[in-house]
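Quick one: co-fold with adenosine-5'-diphosphate.
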Amino acid sequence: MDLSRYITTKDSSPMLTEKRLNIVFASSEIAPFSKTGGLGDVAASLPKAMAQRGHNVVVITPLYGHLDPQKMRLSRRLEPLEVPRKSKNQSKLEAILWESQLDHGVRVVFVQADEYFDREGLYGDAENSFEDNAQRFAFFSRAVVEFTRVFSLDVDILHCNDWHTALAPIYARHYFEDEFADTSLMLTIHNLAYQGKFNSDDFDSTGLPKKYASDSELFDADGDLNFLKGGLLYADHITTVSPGYAEEIQTPEGGAGLHEVLQSRAEDISGILNGADYSIWSPEVDRHISVQYEVETLNGKRRNKAEVQHSLGLPVRPTLPLFGVISRLTEQKGIDLLIPTVQSLLSDLKDERDGFQLVILGEGPTHFREQLTALQKEFPKRVVFQHGYSEQMAHRIQAAADVLIVPSRFEPCGLTQIYAMRYGTVPVVHATGGLKDTVIDVRENPDTGTGFVFDEHTQDSLAGALERAAATYRNYRKWRPLMVRAMEKDFSWNESARHYESLFRASRESTAAE
Ligand code: ADP
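Sure, here it is.
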């Protein structure tokens, strides 16, 4: 396939002085079509940034049940994609491929395989994962490899993401060593907590020969089948989404059981910070919010706050800081720390003019939903819990809140605090991973600070940061410069895409030299 005919970027692109790279980006989600978290955002914005640099980029992703090819006006490829399910050739499944072309020439190819993807949910429901996820994503990884070889003449980079596509490097090297000799196989870890761990009996669903079971490349210390581990051993290069997290995952505390595997690949690991797509996440252009605003028109932010307070049934009080949380409801995200901390802070309040209001948008399991609903019941004038997933509400909270709380135990990069800063919504974050890499504490750095960072993952430490934020908010002479500094921070993809490009080129050169 000649990818260049789909691309609008001209050869004379000022960015490009070397060969244009052909990149296949494989992801189990891509916003706005499918998204459960940051991976969906990155799968949309990194390919776009690479295309803006002049490269040819195709994103390959599943066609989930909620996606209707007709309504989305996708075009159907005449040739189906034949995907072997077991070993090299047996039991092929014919997948239908649908295509769409996004801004800047990025193409998205959706893989339709109804028995795996035509159902509600991407990976499961709020409580449980689908039982056949091993088959589903072994199939998808294999589809990625078949797509790359059958439809592409000279793919330079096959960029896999997380465990869902982590088997692709193994399939490529095992079955098609020659065909992939000039292709660099990249694997990005967006969150090491999710490894694609399955019962050992699921090994058959990979279709791989027994050797991969016997020399334990695909099994971890607990005896579980582990897709990510296999990918980490077979990828040419591994990246993760912040420099801080790249170090943490190589330690016993941060390695989620894979630190030794990661240490063995230390020379091939890079941490590249995720960026923000400011054409979507910026208050000047955001179409989801009531009033657009920028640094010069901060009154617009106050109007968004009043509108959100009013519509959620909170007292409209400009003087009370409005705290926001936009998060998956999990232990990783520190929801179990947040709830008792807020409960205790609000219980201690004597005067209704003190303290703060809090709006939480999140999706998660029953126990967190119940605890958050109870918190709202206890403090109806203070706390609103919006259960569910709403892109629009996420934007409205970013624009309306004064403070965004991200109390994650660990955080590979974190996007919500990056988006928050552009909205003048000052982040309160735990000092970990990408949160530490992106937020500068204002107490330690009064002239450059952009938020509030707490060190210990304890109630006292979080409460201290929240109180500091609330106290600073009440002093507008201090608050305004803090907001403005946060808004002026540049986390666009430019710099990060440049890093990916250098890495891709270096990796291609070493692949070609082997
Ligand atoms: P993670 O990928 O670990 O969930 P990130 O901070 O990297 O965390 O990315 C989270 C993304 O998901 C952001 O775009 C955020 O706005 C979005 N998000 C999280 N929860 C919700 C929700 N309930 N409704 C809408 N968007 C959400």
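If it helps, Residues 37-38, 41, 191, 326-328, 361-363, 389-391, 394, 413-416 surround adenosine-5'-diphosphate (CB under 6 Å).
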